[in-house]
Design a protein that fits this description.
The protein is an alpha/beta fold. Helices cover about 40% and strands about 15% of the residues. It has a six-stranded mixed β-sheet with strand order 5-7-8-9-10-11.
């Protein structure tokens, strides 16, 4: 056996210049079978290195370099207990003030083999730890006279000397300094060829022998062998109890089908040891106002009974095996969405519930892209741009080399790990900038360590539904959610079939609205199909789906597929379709079929050819025609990169229906909630225009009617103070609190007396028209002047209905808002209170968007205010774009083909009104404009 110890790959928070796979290829060529990578004060790369080692048949031992001001101590893990000792040591070093490495090691070192190249450190440790070696390396023999057993160490950081400059750049980035100001460090060593390494240490055969001994002691440890869940006493019985209680609450009397499905799922869940996972999620979701469990886990009736998910898998024929089966080795994956503004509180409650010492947030390992690598390299060289001399080539070479290397840690958006013992027993824990305990590993590292990640994610539409229901409740309108069945509401179904979905969760994008219009289907089953089939690589199959949906003749590609794909008209729509087809046609096992699904959907092309061969071979063995196999494989490849399982789409479709129902039956309250939660796919201007198209009356923002957030009353939508740019939160609250305490304001003078605001806040309020109802005769500049001078009118100006010497009281004329005032209003709100922003521009001769249906296949000019844009690449790798525009009358879609895009891309990417000339086309009853020319309106 050949082993090497103490190779470094990291410096500080940054990966060093040894790229894992290059290192393993080098070691494999030297016939090394074991290696210890001793990162400095961390285990960031442990699992990445272990995976790279597995590919090269090299065992990566667990080890780290513990630094202190006197030098460093190398710690090699020789037992499961030693691993936890190391993770606790590293966690304490990162999180505890006044941490003392010597005291920590004296107190706890069982299962660790320690070594150092520093005589000083060795003298301090001698007799105080269980296993201690004096290290010798090809460049350091200073410890040989201490009388301790010797251990041969590599002590290398670079693979080649050419990497030194990149290493110095990484040091400078990590220390936030320049290359020229770097502190001196000991010589950075290059990894010697194994032959030269042994030759350099030939005088100390004991050291070389001990290296093999230590490597063997640290080899084949039973680490990361079983999934880690929180601990629940009698978890199986507790889960069954909760599930039956929840099912009875949902269904009432439990029939044989329900009981049979629950028994089957519980059997698999308990058999695989997953009961604590479901109990954990059950406890977490119980803390939230509303949730949406999604992903493949929505196919679980157990999850539905526990309130984790919101869709009945029996009613909607959801495929449980996509989530769990006896062959599956992965941990369960059940993501849960919470209202976006509750998510942080849910995280805090979760950590309090399970003890923060047992919880950790998952990290992201952010990597250098070429642009960021170039920017950082320039910075540490003290440059703002590339010089023209040879140094420029050097900088580009370094930046290119750093591309793909990890740069820094950040907080994963919602991943949490909960462990039965303190989490520092399982992984190294730091503290994030936000104050959370932060695991050093990203989601792949946590998965490799068998730490089960629970995703607690934020969702704005859950908050929209919550706020709409609260708004209605305040008005005395109650919706009983136990009996609420939006999916059965005919008016909602009809609206979805028309594509009236702006503001509706998940199905409001232009592409989705067009698909709805083309299909003319708004029932739950078709919404589930549409939200899955509308993926980037499936355009060809979407068109065929529409044809079949509308009665076009079709037959399954193979008789065995009729049952599998019958509900989706013979077209693969859901991720599990890949697995089902592979099992039915090619004889794959459940596990292999799921592996195929992962390879295709996650773009793991290196394995795709092997699976293709297996699939084709299996199909041919079962007498499937080659042409049929090719057509099926082509459809399977349309799932590459971006696709969903049916359970995920169904869970989201349920939230879509809740949103759509509220939009149809309570439009003012719903749109107010959508705007208050900062919408979804579109900017505020688009939603404001949609409110007008829906016939809603817009009020404010107004000093006496507006709250902080938008709200609805009957058919009125009152704009919230939150809409006003440059108005401080403190200023908004001061206004609202004073109005709550003292009642409405009657005039500017009274407002000035009761509320003290900064000048910037007053300007923001005035520009937004907040005081127009108090002083309708004054210009907005006049309003501001009054407010800045205490609110009293000058002798030359009177308040409305102010008494005059004349016995006849004449009301002053209402002020007409000027164009300049409207421009400031638009800047303050991003929309206009009473008009469309196009009103600020000179009128041009054009067809109204609402009239385009009368100009099918004709060339027209239309005025357009841009709403949203999507840019895509054609099969020829040319750029084209789809843009939603609106005028005062309607929203419409514009298609810009590559030649036109090339000529006008500089113009269409800007937020400016345009005159668009093009041809009105019709596709399956849906209008769009194929643009030929753009002209800016100014």
């Amino acid at each position: 056996m050949s082993s090497r110890l103490a190779i470094r790959t990291y410096y500080s928070l940054l990966w060093g210049t040894i790229e894992p796979q290059r290192l393993m290829e080098r070691l494999k060529g030297e016939k090394i079978e074991r290696v210890a990578i001793t990162d400095r004060d961390n285990l960031y790369g442990l699992h990445t290195l272990r995976e790279a080692g597995q590919r090269s048949a090299i065992e990566v031992l667990v080890a780290a370099e513990l630094t202190c001001k006197e030098g460093s101590i190398l710690a090699f893990v020789a037992s499961v207990e030693g691993y936890s000792v190391l993770t606790r040591l590293l966690s304490a070093k990162k999180r505890e003030q006044g941490f003392n490495l010597f005291r920590a090691l004296e107190a706890e070192n069982k299962g660790l083999i320690l070594a150092s190249l520093s005589p000083t450190l060795l003298r301090r440790l001698e007799g105080r730890v269980e296993s201690l070696y004096a290290g010798v390396s090809p460049t350091n023999f200073s410890t040989v006279r201490l009388g301790l057993p010797l251990l041969a160490l590599d002590d290398a950081t670079l693979l080649t000397q050419e990497e030194l400059k990149a290493h110095r750049v990484l040091r400078a980035i990590g220390e936030n300094t320049s290359v020229g100001l770097l502190k001196e460090e000991p010589p950075v060593n290059v990894l010697l060829p194994y032959r030269l390494y042994r030759k350099a240490l030939a005088s100390w055969p004991e050291a070389l022998k001990n290296t093999e001994l230590v490597a063997k002691q640290c080899s084949n440890l039973p680490l990361f062998t079983s999934l880690v869940f929180p601990d629940y006493p009698n978890s199986s019985a507790e889960l069954s109890k909760r599930v039956l209680a929840g099912a009875e609450e949902i269904f009432g009397e439990l029939n044989d089908a329900i009981l049979s499905r629950l028994e089957w799922e519980l059997q698999i869940i308990v058999e695989k040891g997953f009961a604590p996972y479901f109990l954990t999620l059950s406890d977490i979701v119980g803390k939230a106002s509303r949730t949406c469990g999604r992903g493949s886990g929505a196919a679980s009736l157990v999850a539905y009974a526990l309130g984790i998910t919101n869709v009945d898998p029996l009613e909607h024929n959801l495929y449980f095996e996509r989530f769990l089966n006896r062959e599956r080795q992965d941990p369960p994956d059940l993501d849960v969405d919470f209202a976006w503004d509750e998510r942080d509180a849910i995280l805090q409650q979760t950590m309090a519930m399970f003890n923060s010492d047992h919880c950790g947030r998952v990290a992201n390992h952010n990597r250098f892209r070429l642009r960021s690598a170039l920017r950082e390299t320039l910075r540490v060289y003290g440059l703002s741009k590339l010089p023209s001399d040879y140094l420029g080539d050097e900088i580009k070479a370094i930046a290119t080399f750093l591309q793909g290397f990890p740069h820094h840690l950040s907080l994963h958006c919602g991943g949490v790990v909960i462990t039965p013992e303190p989490i520092s027993n399982y992984a190294v824990v730091e503290t994030s900038l936000e104050g959370y305990p932060l695991l050093e590993w990203d989601k792949r590292g946590c998965e490799a360590a068998k730490l089960v990640k629970i995703d607690l994610l934020g969702n704005r539409s859950l908050a929209v539904v919550r706020d709409t229901l609260q708004n209605l409740k305040a008005e005395g309108i109650l919706i009983d959610e136990l009996t609420w069945r939006p999916i059965d509401d005919e008016a909602t179904i009809a609206a979805l079939a028309r594509g009236d979905t702006m503001g509706v969760f998940y199905i409001e994008s232009p592409a989705m609205r067009q698909l709805q219009k083309k299909s003319q289907k708004g029932d739950f089953e078709h919404i589930v199909i549409h939200s899955s089939i509308i993926r980037p690589a499936a355009n060809k199959f979407i068109r065929e789906y529409i044809r079949r949906l509308k009665g076009g003749h079709w037959q399954p590609l193979h008789p065995l597929l009729e049952e599998i794909l019958g509900e989706t008209y013979g077209i693969m729509c859901y991720q599990e379709d890949l697995s089902k087809v592979a099992i039915a046609l090619a004889g794959f096992s459940e596990a292999d079929a799921d592996a195929l699904r992962k390879v295709i959907t996650k773009k793991r092309g290196a394995h795709l050819d092997a699976f293709r061969t297996r699939f084709f071979t299996g199909c041919l063995e079962r007498k499937v025609e080659p042409a049929t196999i090719g057509a099926i494989w082509e459809m399977m490849l349309s799932f590459e990169g971006y696709s969903f399982c049916k359970a995920h789409s169904a869970s989201y479709a349920m939230l879509s229906f809740q949103s759509a129902y509220l939009r149809v039956h309570h439009p003012a309250q719903f749109m107010a909630a959508a705007l208050s939660n900062k919408g979804g796919y579109y900017h505020a201007q688009a939603y404001i225009s949609e409110c007008r198209r829906m016939g809603l009356k817009l009020i404010g923002p107004d000093v006496n009617q507006s709250r902080l957030r938008y709200y609805g009353q009957d058919n009125r939508l009152i704009i919230g103070l939150m809409a006003i740019a440059n108005l401080s939160h403190k200023g908004s609250l001061a206004l609202i609190e004073e109005r709550r305490r003292g009642g409405n304001f009657s005039c500017l003078a009274e407002f000035s007396q009761r509320v003290s605001l900064a000048k910037d806040d007053l300007m923001a309020l005035v520009n937004a028209g907040v005081f127009d109802s108090l002083a309708p005769t004054l210009s907005r500049s006049g309003q501001l002047k009054r407010l800045l001078t205490g609110g009293a009118p000058s002798r030359e100006q009177g308040e409305l209905f102010t008494a005059r010497p004349s016995p006849v009281i004449m009301p002053a004329l209402k002020h007409t808002t000027t164009r300049d005032e409207l421009k400031r209003e638009l800047a303050a709100l991003t929309f206009l209170r009473e008009k469309h922003p196009l009103s600020l521009f000179p009128p041009v001769k054009a067809v109204k968007a609402a009239s385009l249906e009368h100009y099918k296949n004709r060339y027209v000019s239309v005025v357009g205010w841009p709403i949203t844009q999507k840019t895509v690449y054609t099969s020829a790798h040319e750029v084209m774009s789809f843009i939603s525009f609106e005028d005062e009358s309607a929203l419409y879609e514009v298609v810009i083909f590559p030649a036109v895009y090339k000529d006008y891309s500089y113009l269409i990417s800007r937020q400016v009104p345009l005159l668009i000339y093009g041809k009105v086309t019709v596709d399956e009853g849906v209008l769009s404009l194929e643009a030929l020319r753009f002209t800016r309106i100014s």
